[in-house]
Amino acid sequence: MNASEINPFADQIINEPQRLEAAVGGLNDRPLEVLLAEFDRLAEGPTPRTKRRLPYAHLVSSPQPGYGKSHLLGRLYREIQAKSIFVYILAIQNPATVFQSLMQAIVRELHFPPRSGAGPLDSEQSTHLDLLAHHVFAHLLAGLIENRIGIEIDTPSDTAEKLRADPLLAFNRGTVGDLWADWMRENFEKLLPFFGEALEIRGVSLHSPGAWLRALFHYAWSPFDANKRRYVRDWMTAQPLEQEEYSHLGMRAADAPDCEISPHAANELCRQRLADLGQLAGYFRPLVFCIDQTEIYAHQPLIARSFGMAVAALVNEVNNHLTVVTSNQSPWVERIEPNIEDADLDRLSRPFLTLQGLNREQARELVRLRLEAWQKPAGELTSFLDKAWLAELFPAAGNEMGARHFLQKCKERWARKPAPSAPLSELYQQHRDRLLAEPKRHLFEPDTLQWLVEEAALELPGLKVTRVDQTYFRVKWETPQRHCFFGFEAGTNWKRWEKIMKISQNAASATPPAKSVFFRTADMAVLPGAWRIADQFRQAQASCLHIVVLEVEDIAELYAAKELFADAAQQNISFSTTQVMSFLRDQLAPWWERLRGPVSAPPTPPPAPPPSDVSPLAGEVRDIVQKERFLSVDEVILKLSTPASRDDVLKACGHSVEIRIHSHPNMIVLQWQTS
Amino acid sequence: MDLPQARAAIIEKLEKAGTKGEPSLATASVLTTNQATFDEALAALEQEGIALVNREGAKPKYYLKEFAPSHRKSILEKLQKAGAKGSAALYTPSASANTRAAIENEAALLESEGEIVVDRSGEKRKYYLKSLAPEFPILEDICAKLEEFASAKYPEMVSEAELKKQLSKAEAASPFKRAIQLMEGQRELVRLRHGRTALFASGRALRAALGEGISNPPANPSPQSQPPPESIASPDNTGIIRQTYRVLAERSGFPSVKIAALQRESGVALPALHRWLRDEYQHGRAVLSFGDWSLSDEATRSAALEIRGEHYLLVKLRE
Fold it and tell me: Do residues A80 and A39 touch, judged by C-beta distance below 8 A?
């Protein structure tokens, strides 16, 4: 089999809305227009627009799976990506920390460059947060200059205009030698009270204005100081900071979360941070939150309730943002809506935005687009689109059919035989391959990991799983051999880790003995840091404190499990959630054994690859796929100038939003696609 | 002082503090031990569930587990005291956000465990201990009472106030509006206007008077047990079906409605409805969708429309 033999209709699910795919003209234009009109209400006119607030969130719904909810989000993204901060949010797992989960998702996005298809983190590029900070300071400074508050300048209007016109050029990420960058660095502390005044003049009322301004300044003026930028992100997500860390940001102890902050307090703090961020976004671009895969809440009433409360809070408390929620109609009506308070449901705009199926002409258009994308001869279109066949599916021009259902019929027609669903192992592998090529999903996602050890592990033999509500731990496993306490710490506060270490050491001597398990991703700071307890910590790591460092391949493997479950919950696949859970119990067996087993010796951290290792391969893969239009990964490897593995090529695809990945049992095909 | 001694000292202090708890335990001066040992002992006690830390206030407060204030306990006590009147609030307005969240979480848990009952029919929620909760008026009973009254009054029309008078105080409180809404949806009551005044007439009596011969649908009929009255497959059904569709779509907020609900609320027999839907589908005026078979009950499934061997649960009608 070679790439040209791939069934053009095999790919029927969109899991990554930002990736490009051609749209059928006229299909679901109306809901898109409504969302764009709502967005325009936030984005029109010059910045700053700090006080705009939409009265409702929007529910995008379809009467059955496969009507194109994620596709619509993709179209929305392409329309507004250059003028919004677009955050794609997957299911939350812990009802007690819903705002912290939202803020973590937002901060993950803010730390990426705004261009579509941004590859792995690259400090050379400005991130959303860089741009936000530049715009905030440019407008504040321009306001001070215009109003002659604290600053006297000969050409106030010209200067203010220039600052506002191109903030990035004005401050240039704090580059030494740049006039305004240097001046801000020297005068920042003196300017702070005036900036505070300028915020007040605009009616911006932040919960902690000084801390926010310091955080933004130190982030944007330290583009190559990964640690400092991490402190800022930790501060934004209510992670405790050590004295040395918050001092680096010019903050006082009162500005930084306490090292013993409870999950509830951290959640409340994140709720405040969200409201503050909304106001600050008015200086730059509106925030757009797209909350997908909500069907998962159909299985979790408490989370559904918290989710409803969170959506209402976003509408009530966060300026300059648009929230879009997607759900299939039946799970929403039968299982989600009944668990949400009426007052919270009232924050959703009615009537809901409902998606339409393809009509006969649109079905014809979809076939044409697919055949063209796979470079099939023009004659194939005519023979494929037999009139009698189309008339059977669409008796009248006004009949509609869900896009995925129609694609399935096309797939079978193309194959000239019924096309049974791919087995779960293949569907799982498809998710794994796709996730390898999604740099934004290579980061620490505590909700996904908690789902894994709390839900996916639920019926493992010989294991009892309970949710615990402790400062450092969320989930407990009980096995005859030992108890395992799972925590999801993103920070590096040594006092907090010291507590965890001591609790773990103490619990290790109980009967049965216990161990603590914490996941970290390879991009996070290595533990222990240069702490005075580093030696003790390493000893604990060897006996009772299991730090599981996840490489990109591990992340793809684990996150793929959640994606597969989400597919089943959304009925994107013909397997039930129970079948998926059963499959995952076997598929992830090595992981379960590793997590429930004794602590293994901590691995030595792998040396960080030099940044130059990534980009040339990405560029080369991009060039090859663009030239060939579609080919298999193995064919790409043969064309590369240097040896690379299959996973390396998939990871390199993460740099190019135009490359779509199609996983088939015996090959992975890369396809070049533009809108 | 070593670790076991520190543990013993903490336990002793917390025992003395009893239900008041101990706010100053964190200071090393309380114990003649170093801070690290103290922290370690306290963390271990917390981990073992012997000591509890309440972090809802500005400063933490420490308790032995048996003395720790439990929101669960306080909620149950409060509702026990409130008796059959119930309680509209579980915390005081001055409660911190953390405390509110903790209490609400606990209340949600108690509700899911069936210990307490929450009445959400009014503008504000009201909480009751399950054993003391009053019998909440059953919506169906209220509807039946109102229908009986409106039918008896026919051909006289009745006002909303007159309808309300037929109900007890509890019934006439919050569920009344919902009952009227439901009855209008099911065409048990027909809203008419005289000037600006809304008046109601019994739908059943009106239909009988118009000679439609369609009895009101039973509350939860088995769609397939309906006889296939051929007369219902008349073109007149279009008006009834479309009107019912509009009510259902507006009520749910979704343009696709369950075929089962359309049959139940329109009163049109299932075979006749299926024939009508097939015809509309052939002319492109009905959009069929699968819905979610796994989440549907037997009544919904048995009303599915089969076309080309595929079973559709939902329909959207084009105007």
Answer: yes
Return the residue in A58, A100, A264, A467 with the most chain B beta carbons within 10 A, the one to mutate for interface testing.
A264
Whole-number pLDDT of residue A417 = 74
Report the residue of chain B nearest A300, measured CA to CA: B112
| Domain boundaries defined on chain B | 3-67, 72-132, 139-209, 229-317
- In the predicted model, what is the mean pLDDT of chain A? 88
Q: How far is B151 from chain A (nearest CA, A)?
A: 33
| Assigned architecture for domain B3-67 | Orthogonal Bundle (1.10)
- Nearest by CB to residue A63, choosing from B55, B97, B289, is B289
ipTM: 0.78
Q: Residue A644 pLDDT more than 80?
A: yes
**pLDDT, tens digit, 9 for 90 and up, residues B283-297:** 999 999 999 888 888
Q: With contacts defined as CB-CB under 8 Å, which chain A residues touch B101?
A: 96, 264, 267-268
Chain A: residue whose CA lies nearest to B258: A330
Same fold, B139-209 and B229-317: yes
Band of pLDDT at residue A127, cut at 50, 70 and 90: very high
For B141, half-sphere exposure in the C-beta direction (CA atoms, 13 angstrom radius) is 9
Instruction: Tell me which CATH code domain B139-209 carries.
Output: 1.10.10.10
DSSP string, B24-48: STTSGGGTTS-HHHHHHHHHHHHHT
Question: Are A249 and A215 within 8 A, CB to CB?
Answer: yes
- Give yes or no for A554 touching B (CB within 8 A): no
Of A305, A335, A506, nearest to B40 by CB-CB distance is: A506
B56 class by beta-carbon count within 10 Å (0-12 exposed, 13-18 middle, 19+ buried): buried
Structure tokens at B309: 């061997």
Chain B residues inside the 8 Å CB shell of A470: 46-47
A179-199 as b/e: b if 16+ CB within 10 A: ebbeebeeebeebbebbbebb
Q: What is the mean pLDDT of chain B?
A: 78
Q: Where is A667: in which H helix or E strand?
A: strand A667-672
Angle between helices A209-220 and A128-146 (to 10 degrees): 120
The residues, ordered by sequence, that sit 6+ positions from B108 with a Cβ below 8 Å of its Cβ are A302, A305
pLDDT tens track for B105-119:
778 778 767 788 877
Rounded average pLDDT over A195-215: 93
Cα–Cα distance, B48 to B38 (Å, whole number):
15
Q: Which helix (H) or strand (E) holds B281?
A: helix B270-282
pLDDT score of B20 more than 70: yes
> What is the tens place of the pLDDT at every residue in B41-60?
877 787 777 787 776 666 67
How far away is chain B from the Cα of A489, in angstroms, using its nearest Cα? 17
Q: Which residues does chain B have within 8 Å of residue A326's beta carbon, measured at their own beta carbons?
A: none
The pLDDT of residue A614 is 47
- Asked if A532 reaches chain B (Cβ–Cβ under 8 Å), the answer is no
Nearest chain B CA: its distance from A19 CA (Å): 28
B115 contact A CB<8A: no
CATH number attached to the domain at B72-132: 1.10.10.10
Q: How far is CA A151 from CA A142, A203, A218, A458, in A?
A: 10, 21, 22, 62
Q: Which residue in the set B120, B254, B318 is minimally distant from A342, CB to CB? A: B120
Query: What CATH number matches the domain at B229-317, 1.25.40, 1.10.10, 2.60.40, 3.30.230?
Result: 1.10.10
- Type of residue found at B263: Q
Give me the pLDDT at residue B215, please.
44
Q: What is the amino acid identity at position A158?
A: D
